[in-house]
Design a protein that fits this description.
Blueprint (H helix, E strand, L loop, with lengths): L1 H7 L4 H62 L4 H8 L3 H11 L5
Helix pairs in contact: 2-3, 2-4, 3-4
Length: 105
């Protein structure tokens, strides 16, 4: 663009500089947007992984408690004893037992 315009003499040096600066600004803005999008995606992926790990840990803890409740129930612990160990109410323990067995106490 610069060489063609200068050969034709249709632009002054200041006009050419203004055009080059404008073109540079536009390209810079476009590159900045793309970089921002990429960085945002990476940050989102990292946050998603962390959230997934946290949710997985919580789910594992809950599954472990359920297995403990059922094992204690099978070994004739009372609902009160089970509730105290797993830090749940007797009603919560009873509901878990009902959900996972055929005959709760």
């Amino acid at each position: 663009v610069y060489n063609e315009s200068m050969e034709r003499g249709s632009y002054t040096m200041c006009e050419m500089l203004d055009r080059m600066i404008s073109k540079g600004k536009i390209e810079g803005i476009q590159e900045g947007k793309l970089q921002g999008i990429q960085e945002g995606k990476l940050q989102g992926i990292q946050e998603g992984k962390l959230q997934g790990i946290q949710e997985g840990k919580l789910q594992g803890i809950q599954e472990g408690k359920i297995q403990m409740i059922l094992k204690m129930y099978q070994n004739n612990f009372t609902l009160q004893q089970i509730a105290m160990v797993v830090e749940k109410t007797v009603d919560e323990v009873n509901a878990i037992i009902k959900e996972h067995t055929l005959s709760p106490s």
